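Support request, please re-run this one:
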Amino acid sequence: MKIKNLAVIICLLLMSTLSACSSDYSESIEINWGISLPKGYEELFSVDSGASFHGDGDRYHVFSYKEELKQSEIEKFSSEKNPYVEDEVEKILNSLQVSNEQKPDFSKEYYWYRKNGDNDSRNKLYLIYFNEDNILHVIEQFY
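Re-run finished. Output below.
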């Protein structure tokens, strides 16, 4: 009887751990940055610098939306090209060895948003949205 109970407990722990690992990426963005990504995306590409004891490193995700994002969903974004943001994003993506095909195409018009971390201002989030393609690039850098 004790072995059955132990087996049930182990199975429940494994199931809860697996469900936590497979959670929606937008939940991570909400927890880390206090930003809700618009729903209804499909993940096209994802890469990160790997697990770290301190949780530092870089992450990059590319999401596709079926429809253009509403103005209310990108109201905090800037529509003016920003060479500084482009350079910073390029540096992070180069460190992750992202191919040119997976990088944002800054020759197109885009909207961008940048946020520094609340607890550590060195942490950065970049959101780059191309409404022509309905593609959102999410770039995170943690120290």
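The first strand starts at residue 41 and ends at 48. Helices lie at 2-21, 25-33, 83-95.
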